[in-house]
Specification:
By secondary structure, the protein is of the alpha/beta class. The protein has 16 helices and 17 strands. The structure holds pyridoxal-5'-phosphate (PLP). Pyridoxal-5'-phosphate (PLP) binds next to helix 8. Pyridoxal-5'-phosphate binds next to helix 8. It holds the Pfam family Aminotran_1_2.
Length: about 500
């Protein structure tokens, strides 16, 4: 079971609006296999693991920590070890305590975070020589600069036409809805503007759909592994993720999904069929058709997250899942985003479904916000209109970056087994041992930020896996990989090996 599910929310108190608590035994499970490789002190290793859980979101902020004595008992440690770890976390801003009341997780101020990461243990690199952090935790590209600049200039010129109105468009600006609808139609899914709702990124789209279709206690079917912020959104809704494994050879196993729908009667299913985050898997056309048929047979809404759909590298662009059924089916909700193909800084996404569903979702929107910024929507509409040349440029860069990363991994980490995705932004790497969190902590000390495998799973799964994006410039990627190799070679890579079965993923 998900240890954090055992967290209970308690009422507000003195300046803390939402507070969660986690029991000592649940916390021990969440910590996983944290114990220090030989030579590192237990307290330092415990501090590092807790810091990692806070930084990568597995331990939410404002969570009340177990009392020192209880945690020491659950971990079979001396109370001094736990007290030393808590002291170190307090000193670096990851914990705050009130005498007699307890300790809560928090994040230090941004400059302090980098300093805390650097100070968390001996770093083998001279900060004077190279003190920057290398971000391999986010699979996101810098903006398509030239295209965004010229789209922004065109959008500014069009702004006059909008300044006379109030500027609030709950469902999105007509120009952008039309451009998105045309893009769907060009990709093989006939769509009209009233079938599109513009959102503040795909993340808001996921939250909005969950609000509309699910409630506390409901089950939501997800792939396993899956996109972590979708898992967080499901938890935030009070719903429960029902994980269905992706299989090593084909990715999605329709029989497995069908059985899970039959056995658990989920409120909805959430899938990422195009260059799946994190595995990079691409769903084949038969499975797409099968999923849509399953949706129709069981009346289970299917939420298709197409955030990475425009990033095909070595295969033709995938046809949308929704195109495998009736184009106006209310049961398939397709989510898209400008973030991966153009730039995350635009904060524009969308939902496509039947027009009545779109109206229903728009009616829920004011509880979240009153629509996206007009200027950002105009910029995005221009970018979508010119998407072909941006796609060509992105595909060229990303193909080279993916192949470079694969060949560097072969040289530096011969025992690792990376996926070979046909699109998307990252590799999913089998490390050969359940040390992903350990490696993530060690890499931080070498100035490299990683997203550990368990971030993408339920119940701490995927300790053997690491997601590695190929989104850094080549020179920076090369430095990051050398640092990563230092972190890897410093690990006791046998720690915990053999304790978990290989996990079935692509
Ligand atoms: C599968 C998936 N869905 C949704 C999102 C969120 O996208 P946006 O930036 O549009 O909110 C991401 C971003 O990484 C993603 O990978």
């Amino acid at each position: 079971m998900d240890p954090l599910r055992e967290c209970s929310e308690v009422g507000p108190d003195a300046g803390v609006s939402i507070e969660r608590r986690i029991g000592a035994h649940s916390f021990a499970r969440l910590l996983g296999d944290w114990r220090a490789p030989e030579g590192r002190r237990l307290a330092a290793a415990l501090t590092d693991r807790i810091r990692l859980l806070v930084l990568d979101g597995r331990l939410p902020l404002q969570t009340r920590m177990p009392a020192e004595r209880e945690l020491a008992a659950a971990l079979e440690l001396s109370r001094t070890t736990v007290a030393t770890a808590y002291d170190a976390l307090r000193a670096t801003g990851f914990l705050h305590s009130r005498r007699g009341a307890g300790s809560w997780t928090r994040l230090p101020a941004p400059q302090a975070t980098a300093a805390a990461v650097a100070a968390s243990a001996v770093t083998p690199f001279s900060p004077a020589a190279d003190d920057t952090l290398f971000d391999l935790a986010h699979a996101a590209l810098p903006g398509s600069a030239d295209e965004i600049r010229s789209a922004a200039a065109a959008a500014v010129a069009e702004l006059d036409g909008h300044l006379g109105g109030h500027g609030v468009h709950l469902s999105g600006l007509a120009e952008l809805r039309t451009s998105i609808a045309k893009r769907f139609t060009d990709r093989g899914l006939p769509t009209t503007a009233d079938q599109v709702l513009v959102t503040a990124g795909a993340q808001q789209a996921i939250a909005l759909v969950l609000t509309a279709l699910s409630g506390p206690g409901d089950r939501v079917l997800v792939e396993h592994p899956t996109y972590p912020n979708a898992l967080d959104a499901i938890r935030a809704r009070g719903a429960r993720a029902v994980p269905v494994a992706l299989t090593p050879d084909r990715g999605w196993d329709l029989d497995l999904v069908t059985a899970a729908v039959r056995d658990t009667a989920p409120r909805l299913a959430y899938v990422v069929p195009d260059f799946h985050n994190p595995t990079g898997a691409l769903m084949d056309p038969e499975t797409r058709a099968g999923l849509v048929a399953l949706t129709r047979r069981t009346s289970t809404p299917l939420v298709v997250d197409e955030t990475l759909a425009e990033l095909s590298l070595s295969v033709p662009s995938p046809v949308p899942v929704a195109a495998h059924g009736a184009a106006d089916s209310p049961l398939v909700l397709t989510i898209g985003s400008a973030s991966k193909i153009f730039w995350g800084g635009l904060r524009i996404g969308w939902i496509r479904s039947s027009a009545p569903i779109i109206r229903r979702l728009s009616a829920l929107r004011p509880a979240l916000d009153l629509g996206s910024a007009v200027l950002d929507q105009l910029v995005t509409a221009r970018l979508i209109d010119g998407i072909d040349s941006i796609r060509t440029a992105r595909h060229g860069e990303l193909t080279v970056a993916r192949d470079h990363l694969l060949s560097r991994l072969e040289e530096l980490f011969p025992g690792w087994r990376p996926s070979r995705p046909t699109g998307g932004l990252s590799l999913w790497v089998d490390l050969g041992a359940p040390v992903s969190s350990l490696l993530t902590s060690a890499a931080r000390r070498c100035g490299v930020l990683l997203a550990a495998g368990p971030r993408f799973g339920v119940d701490g799964a995927f300790e053997r896996f690491l997601r590695l994006p190929y989104t850094l410039r080549r020179e920076r990627m090369d430095i990051a990989l050398v640092r990563l190799a230092t972190a890897w070679n410093g690990l006791d890579a046998t720690a915990g090996s053999g304790e978990t079965e290989p996990v079935a993923v692509v």
